[in-house]
Amino acid sequence: MSTPLLEIENLRVTFPTPRGEIDVVRGVSFTLGRERLGIVGESGSGKSMTGRSILKLIRAPGRVSADRLSFDGIDLRNRSERQMRAIRGARISMVMQDPKFSLNPVMTIGEQIAEALLTHKRLSRREVGQRVLAMLESVRIADPERVANLYPHEVSGGMGQRVMIAMMLIPEPDLLIADEPTSALDVSVQAQVLDIIDELVKRKGMGLIFISHDLNLVSSYCDRILVMNTGQVVEECRAGELQNATHPYTRGLVASIPRLNETRDELPVLDRSAWASK
Amino acid sequence: MTALSLKNLDISYGETRITHSVSLDIAEGESFALVGESGSGKSTVLKAIAGLAPDWTGSITAFGKPRSHGIDGHFARACQMVFQDPYGSLHPRKTIDATLSEPLSIHGIGNQNARVEAVMASVGLDRKFRFRFPHQLSGGQRQRVAIARALVLEPKILLLDEPTSALDVSVQAEILNLLKRLRREQNLTFLMVTHNLPVVSFLCDRLAVMRQGRIVEIADVAQLKQGALREPYSRELMQISATHAA
Amino acid sequence: MAASLRAWLVDDSPSSRLQARLGRAWRIAGALSRNPLAVVGTVIILALVLTAIFAPLLATHDPLKQDLTQRLLAPSAANWMGTDELGRDIWSRVVYGARITLVIVTMVAVLAAPAGLIIGALAGYFGGWPDRILMGITDIFLSLPKLILALALVAALGPGIENAVIAIAITTWPGYARIARAETLTFKNSEFISAIRLQGASSLRVVLGHVLPLCTSSMIVRVTLDMAGIILTAAGLGFIGLGAQPPLPEWGAMIARGRSFILDQWWVATMPGFAIIVVSLGFCFLGDGLRDVLDPKSGEQH
């Protein structure tokens, strides 16, 4: 824990539009050790852009700039696309929202996981097979031999997402970025998938950045939380202390979520006077 | 009076049977929720009532009148639907004005200008949005338009298919407040499909828990609030909801 | 005045349907003008239209007047593109030929695009046996080579521009029907179409009022891109003598006549050929630009 895994200072992501440039991320700074960090925000808050800019996945004409963007001592700012490919997957992995769009429909699940492994390591065929099956087992797939031979359309959404996680974790990265990994899934499956991520992250001592719009979900799976709004971090707190948040945006957000034992007749709404007059 | 009544409703898609003997009675002015996970058949029930899943047996009656299998204009006046995805439920090439006037033209209702303005005001949409295209609106504004479109025919029953699950939480609060207010003002009957139990707790009076095409339990929302649902499956859903509430 | 008109067009909150529509057209035009190839294409097509309209002013000679003493002259100050084997001024004939080309292209678009659009949309929307029958017919037409089919039709109907137009229209609509059907299939189950059906709209109303407007932009792109092919087919028919009949200055027929002298008097065949190439390219450029702007997948949001 002496040197942080990831250090970000004054990160900016800029997109040109016909009406001038727009900063979607405006000066975000944080450091991450081998811990679980949650980034929460509503759509347009810049949370996904923050996650993607770490892997330099912002497509042109978008631009990323930062005073510091270093991962395990490597300065990511001046890495070429080629060097980034060696880092992506092998050292930093990313799980996206919808498994349907992230899996190759014409390759079996086993082949895809094996490929994820072989891109970064040279191993014998038998070893690869064993590793794939072990990985599938560790994402709690009951009969890995059968599932490895299935095609993505033959498995359910929850299973697909577990396969994605297996693919992302098999090269044993140091950092996992999970961008809304469960919002396409049912609540009960959501819990399972998150438990799996949680367990693997803890066991392998990885860093986790969990990006989500769901305050409660993030607070129950992370150690620390950043709340983002319009491209800036408005609040940083320990996960358990979300109810004591100080920033009005965070407080408004927490209050606007209905509860299971709801007694309020009307939900408090964020002050959107800016919205009405624009 | 019973607003909506389903009896032994079996809905199929081709060969597959989606629901098994679903029976429900929803009183006029009541807000009723169908909850369950994906694949439980809850959305299919809504589609069958709306007329989008015509392959069913059993009976669907609205205010005592049985419903035919297709889509008919008469039923459309009494019962309208709000869809889940505000980005997919508005025609991308039509202005808000065109979207809201269309139902009036279909039914030959006059005084369109005033009606469109009135319905926009009732869902809290500023007049300046009237001639915009959907892509010029935010998600919450789009969902307001979708609600306005459903209300412009002045129906008695509103079918709500996860009306807030695609929205941000702060916007969700606005839409939930809006739905609650509209129900009170216009004495609407709601049938809402959702997987989000806290939303049920806020907006509904009663709920039915569905699993694999069957209704497992029908309960009062008071029972949900007190954590007093009877069936093990309902309790399981409640448990998950309490720990990872969305 | 210009500034206030512009502000009116780009207004985020238009106050009437007309303003909303014009605003959208303005944004599309703006996006087109930022695409250099599309601008080149637009300029060429505009030049074609203007040439056709002002042909009597632009032409230096009567395109039909023969003067056998002046036959096969090389390009010069008097005859900018030279003269043909009957002593007619080629420049004037090319200029008047623009009218014929424009008429053919417009007539084909007016006949084939709506027919294909409606047939495809109906087949896609209703599915089942209407789809099978309509698409079966479409496939029969698609399976025949275009030029051969057009040839057979013209041979049956008799040579001439009108029949060439009909023949070309008959060979092009199946492509449009296919696109319209594919587009319709992607929209048919979307929630906004369901919503309109739930309001009690008749199927005809849904197809004409809500499905067709969504197919039109890809149709406009496709028709524009196809224009080049239509011009070439028309020229091909003219070349083998089944299109426009002499003495009409149709570009394809002009090339056919010039073929006999291509080695010694190259300009006779080259000048109309050049016109065909430029106009075809213009339509291709414009079509590509329109595709970039109108493509629903790239979206108007950006």
From TrEMBL, chain A:
One of its GO terms (molecular function) is ATP hydrolysis activity. Its main location: membrane. Keywords: ATP-binding, Cell membrane, Membrane, Nucleotide-binding, Transport. GO terms for biological process: transmembrane transport. It is a peripheral membrane protein. CDD domains: ABC_NikE_OppD_transporters (cd03257). Residues 6-255 form the ABC transporter domain. GO terms for cellular component: plasma membrane. It is found in: Cell inner membrane. Belongs to the ABC transporter superfamily. PANTHER family: DIPEPTIDE TRANSPORT ATP-BINDING PROTEIN DPPD (PTHR43297:SF2), OLIGOPEPTIDE TRANSPORT ATP-BINDING PROTEIN APPD (PTHR43297). This is Peptide ABC transporter ATP-binding protein. It comes from Pseudaminobacter soli (ex Li et al. 2025).
TrEMBL record, chain B:
It holds the Pfam family ABC_tran. The keyword Transferase does not apply. Residues 4-237 form the ABC transporter domain. One of its GO terms (molecular function) is ATP hydrolysis activity. GO terms for biological process: transmembrane transport. It comes from the Bacteria. PROSITE patterns: ABC_TRANSPORTER_1, ABC_TRANSPORTER_2. Keywords: ATP-binding, Nucleotide-binding, Transport. PANTHER family: D,D-DIPEPTIDE TRANSPORT ATP-BINDING PROTEIN DDPF-RELATED (PTHR43776:SF7), TRANSPORT ATP-BINDING PROTEIN (PTHR43776). Belongs to the ABC transporter superfamily. This is ABC transporter ATP-binding protein.
Automatic annotation (TrEMBL), chain C:
The keyword Cell membrane applies. It is found in: Cell membrane. Gene3D superfamilies: MetI-like. SUPFAM superfamilies: MetI-like. The chain crosses the membrane at residues 37-59, 100-127, 147-171, 227-246, 266-287. InterPro entries: BP-dependent_transpt_permease, MetI-like, MetI-like_sf, OppC_N. Residues 98-287 form the ABC transmembrane type-1 domain. Keywords: Cell membrane, Membrane, Peptide transport, Protein transport, Transmembrane, Transmembrane helix, Transport. GO terms for biological process: peptide transport; protein transport; transmembrane transport. Belongs to the binding-protein-dependent transport system permease family. This is D-ala-D-ala transporter subunit. It comes from Pseudaminobacter soli. The lineage of its organism: Bacteria, Pseudomonadati, Pseudomonadota, Alphaproteobacteria, Hyphomicrobiales.
